[in-house]
Amino acid sequence: MEHRFDHLIIGAGMAGSAAAVALREAAAGASIALLGDEAHPPYDRPPLSKALWKDGKEEDIWRPIAKAGATLQPGRRALSIDRAAHLVRDDAGDTWRYGKLLIATGGTPRRLPFGADIVYLRTLDDYHRLRRSVRSGARMAVIGGGFIGSEIAAALALNGCRVTMLFPEATIGARAFPKALAESVTAYYREKGVDVRAGVTVKGAAGAALELSDGSTLQADAVVAGLGITPNVELAQAAGLEVDNGIVVDAHLRSSDPDIHAAGDVASFPAAALGRRLRVEHENAAVTMGERAGRCMAGQDAPYDELPYFYSDLFDLGYEAVGTLDARLETVEQWVTPYREGVVYYLEGARVRGALLWNTWDQVGAARALIADPGPFDARSVRGRLPAA
Length: 389
Fold this sequence. Notes:
Helix content is about 20%, strand content about 30%. It has helices at about 15-25, 125-130, 145-160, 180-190, 235-240, 285-295, 365-370, 380; strands spanning about 1-10, 30-35, 70-75, 80, 85-90, 95-105, 105-110, 120, 140-145, 160-165, 195-200, 200-205, 210, 215-220, 220-225, 230, 245-250, 260, 265-270, 275-280, 310-315, 315-325, 330-335, 340-350, 350-360. β1, α1 and β2 (about 30-35) form a beta-alpha-beta unit. The model has no long low-confidence stretch (mean pLDDT about 95).
């Protein structure tokens, strides 16, 4: 069967759904379709490792896709893009002709090189699968000490599970946080009852037992891994679009083909405030980028010129972060209460490249402005630029 739409969106996640709603607002009479490879309609992804473990209210996660008045085709995967014919083929044998196309295909979780029964927490079905294993005293192994690993370890512990964390670094958050803060977070998790095994990785599995790098084994009722994702660029590559750690787009989210846009986890966009390209995997970027892409596809001048932020919940700790969080940069710490409330600045080349707002709220806009400021900044001049309370 052949379908024809003014605007076709491949990917029915946060970016794709935001684009569809924006398209409808900008082009009331346009025809819009979304192809999504999941069986579910679009939903918010952050609750999978955050809110759903606190309140379990799945009714709150669904995106407002009905506002788009779009044709939604769930459970359908795009297989190829014919740029010359403006045509997409899917895995059901249908073809979809488009005027403008948005690729919002997200990413695929990185997997371990052995066939253990591991939940890679990415989708609502992954959440359901893990949720079925949760009960008081259940033994849970969490592989990864980064953003997702630390969030899901806290969530499982708060639900009465006996949690063991395994990761190669010396501390939780070692790649993002200053050393003393990362050490404090690691100690905090241990105080909360999490068995943190820093510097220990998984080498294999035998039944319900994980074989660890220190020669020991770990029995687990369920294993969940948060190892990051790789962007789903295969369609773009096969179609001959420019790809470099994501689909390369300009400020208006156009790819190397002016009739094809990209947004969300899969897009590599110019971040003017940082003077380089970024590809990020956070809610704010997905939703805002999708909204701007939709408006641009409808012919509006709506560049994506916002530096994205992200947030996390770790037991009673929480933070928002803007820009680049890289522990290899120079870090300047400004604490109201050490490791409980404050700001960390990330400096490089006399510029602020990132800001970590640790239990410090309503400062994202000010942090964006500070990162855009050409400076110069050093440890003395930057400290106190953002209020820490």
